[in-house]
Amino acid sequence: MTSRTPMRVGIKLSPQHTTIDELRAVWRLADEAGFDSCWTFDHFASIGSDDPSGDVFEGWTLLAAMAEGTERVRIGCMVTGVTYRHPAVLAKIAVTVDHLSGGRLDFGLGAAWAEVEHQMLGLELGSLRERMDRFEEACQIITSLWTRPTTTFCGRYYRLTNALSNPKPVQRPYPPFWIGGSGRKRTLRITAQYADAWNASGGSPEEVAELSAVLDQHCADVGRDPSEIKRTVQLRYTGDADELLTTVERFAQVGIGEVIVILRGGEAIAQAEQVAALLPRLRAVG
After folding, report:
1. Radius of gyration over every alpha carbon of the chain, rounded to an integer in angstroms
2. What is the pTM of this model?
């Protein structure tokens, strides 16, 4: 008799085009309804439209509030842009949230991409290669700060000298690393080296399955068991329950173990309630 692992289900309300009251209501519902995870995002200007001037709240500040406003659901930022903060500063922020939440943080990290934010804030975006080099250095620095008494690092982008980072995370050796991205050569190789979970931000089940196979090969190249890395995907909820169930089933068939359902600001509470009602059926497709 074959046993099946239930599909894990998270929800994500991006902190743009929303209110603090709506965010708090979604967090509370995520905790009480039995969702596995609840997510924010890391941007400083509105994305996904031609107008970047919409209201956007800061993601890691919200995570600290989410840590205090929930009791059981895992929380995270899907995903943190590595160019926005020095990795040692980010490591300290994340440890603080891990302690506030009692060890419920999932640590999401990516190479960043939103050019308009970098232009307006005077942040260096760099070429794709430069961003990936910076991303890889950040992974090395953060894992070292979380596990070693002191960290000395001399890279192209970052330098640390006998850096202290105490306290260490509640979760040992550190919060699960979630890496988001689809770059076949660098992103998925870095994922194979560092991640506990890989997140695909979109694409068809067939496209995600192809990328997952590339990740498997990178795992073989670095000597990592590919089963150690959970495969996850983000999906937008359109309000069609049957469509969501069918889509999740298709992703389950290609090895996805957790889906993050993206909610729409202004409608998020009603959408979260609808998805919560589907949780037993969504878990059953695992």
Report:
1. 18
2. 0.95
